[in-house]
Amino acid sequence: MDHSSNLTQIKVLAPCPNVHSAVDCEHCKVRALSVCAALEADELAELNRYAHPFCLSAKQNLFAQEEESTSVYNITDGAVRLYKILPDGRRQIIGFALPGDFLGLSMAERNAFSADTLTTVSACQFSRIEFSNLVDKKPQLLRRLHNLASHELSLAQDQMVILGRRTAEEKIAAFLMGLRKRWGRGSDHLSVLVPLPMTRQDIGDFLGLTVETVSRLMTKLAREKVLVIVPDGVRLLNMDRLEKLAET
Amino acid sequence: MDHSSNLTQIKVLAPCPNVHSAVDCEHCKVRALSVCAALEADELAELNRYAHPFCLSAKQNLFAQEEESTSVYNITDGAVRLYKILPDGRRQIIGFALPGDFLGLSMAERNAFSADTLTTVSACQFSRIEFSNLVDKKPQLLRRLHNLASHELSLAQDQMVILGRRTAEEKIAAFLMGLRKRWGRGSDHLSVLVPLPMTRQDIGDFLGLTVETVSRLMTKLAREKVLVIVPDGVRLLNMDRLEKLAET
DNA sequence: CGTTGGGTTGATCGACCTCAATAAAAGTGG
DNA sequence: CCACTTTTATTGAGGTCGATCAACCCAACG
């Protein structure tokens, strides 16, 4: 149950090999998705001055619950898990951050949750104070931030329904359909191939299930030809069935 | 399982008998708690012009999921339940709005959930469009809105932990302690007397439990002298025990 | 290779649900 | 105020979904 086991506390903030997507806001591939979309070209240049792009390998801790928040982050590549741990070690994953997601929407002084990388991650780091000052100068940036936070809130409320009132099978279906939609954000088509950078344990801790239950139900769905389990993900076959299971 | 059964769809927006708390922003008792706290005296006067105070009796629908959102509300007295219904009738309550709470933080075009009154409620109604325009003119109001939304998000994340990773007994304890804290907001002392304007069914639908389980565990906690069940609420006796059960 | 982390599968268990009955409270109309 | 209905709360008996415990497989990796 020790979830912090194989995470080094040292933060490897190496410069990013992929120059374009991370160093230059104007050519950033998540520009249209993230907070940055609120800014005009000249303002983007200003934002660029505050941005510190970096890369982090898989299974590294980005920040921890309760810790004072020094930075906010814009994820440009990879996946991050966000979670809370109870004193006795039980864990609840409250979300997965994907490219385009922003960590630190609330700009609160302390982190409400912990975050660590699931894959190699590229991201833009901003000083929380500097970013907060910038937000105070640019109301349209604040508005954007607020809209993103409102959307997060809405997702959190959907997750409450999933956690409180859905069966294990429905949880899995809702999770896969939801993740599929999020991966497809920014492009015009949704793929039936859903990458799963997280472990079964992570999925369980997100859905309020055990690893075994997640594994069993994935196998069941595969046996019933609803999906195929592929390396690092699933291929969805029977979308109608999944839609039915996950429907709001 | 028909949760809409005894709710009239007619919205009784009667003028409020309690003149001071609802008609005049400057003397409003929730002023320090709510969005209004962001405004100076002269701005408050402007807000006042947009405010439509009203009263609504218990068990009335305020607005419904999916419906176009025409108004936002500031609750000044009473309690409101916020919930989502699945196609098959299962219900998840996503929160209870108490005095000082604001409904419509996101200012989205459509309601993400339904709301109905648990008690007689007084509230201030604002046109969503007018309010949104006002927000665009007053960045400090937007900032306030954003802080409140961030706080809501944080509460929603705490609720995810409760729903996903806590036992029934812990859920009840966390619910009671959380509600106690919320009732105490704005005053300097927390009472051990926690009013429960909602039914056991509502509590169950908030915590992902059945009525029976809620009832059984409340009885158990009462039997163990952790609390006393009183009309329309509970009196908490063994705070340490509850704190222990609910601890983050 | 041995080790380690992740995934699957089986057997068993128990926390919470379901179904059912009753009790207590809160209207409602005479 | 009292009979009557409706809603809400409680309690019991029994069932089930997902948890727990345990074994095993497999791929990655030093």
Round the Cα radius of gyration of chain A to an integer and report it: 18 Å
CATH class of the largest domain in chain A: Mainly Beta
SS class of chain A: alpha+beta
Report the oligomer: homodimer
Level of helix content of chain A? 25-40%
Q: Report the sheet with the most strands of chain A, covering strand number, pairing sense and barrel closure.
A: 4 strands, antiparallel
Give me the number of helical elements of chain A.
Answer: 8
CATH superfamily of the largest domain in chain A: Jelly Rolls
Task: Provide the succession of SSEs of chain A.
Answer: HHEEEEEEEEHHHEHHEEH
User: What is the name of the CATH topology of the largest domain in chain A?
Assistant: Jelly Rolls
The low-confidence parts of chain A are 4-10
CATH architecture of the largest domain in chain A: Sandwich
**Approximately how much beta-strand content do the residues of chain A carry?**
15-25%
Shape of chain A: globular
How many angstroms does the end-to-end distance of chain A come to? 33 Å
Query: For the largest beta sheet of chain A, what order do the strands appear in spatially?
Result: 1-8-3-6
Question: Most extensive chain contact?
Answer: A-B, 42 and 42 residues
Characterise this structure:
2 copies of one chain form a homodimer. Chain A is α+β, with helices and mostly antiparallel strands. Chain A has 2 domains: 19-152, Jelly Rolls (Sandwich); 166-246, Orthogonal Bundle (Arc Repressor Mutant, subunit A), CATH 1.10.10.10. In chain A, 39% of the residues lie in helices and 21% in strands. Chain A has 8 helices and 11 strands. The first copy, chain A, has helices at 19-23, 41-50, 128-137, 139-165, 168-183, 200-207, 211-223, 239-246, and strands spanning 52-56, 61-63, 71-77, 80-85, 91-97, 102-103, 114-117, 121-127, 193-195, 227-230, 233-236. In chain A, the strands form 3 sheets. In chain A, strands 1-8-3-6 form a 4-stranded antiparallel beta sheet. Chain A has a 4-stranded antiparallel beta sheet with strand order 2-7-4-5. In chain A, strands 9-11-10 form a 3-stranded antiparallel beta sheet. Chain A starts with 18 loop residues before the first helix and ends with a helix. Chain A binds chain B through residues 84, 86-87, 90-92, 94, 105-108, 112-113, 136, 139, 142-143, 145-147, 149-154, 156-161, 163-166, 205-208, 247-248, and chain B through 84, 86-87, 90-92, 94, 105-108, 112-113, 136, 139, 142-143, 145-147, 149-154, 156-161, 163-166, 205-208, 247-248. The structure holds a DNA duplex (30 and 30 nucleotides).
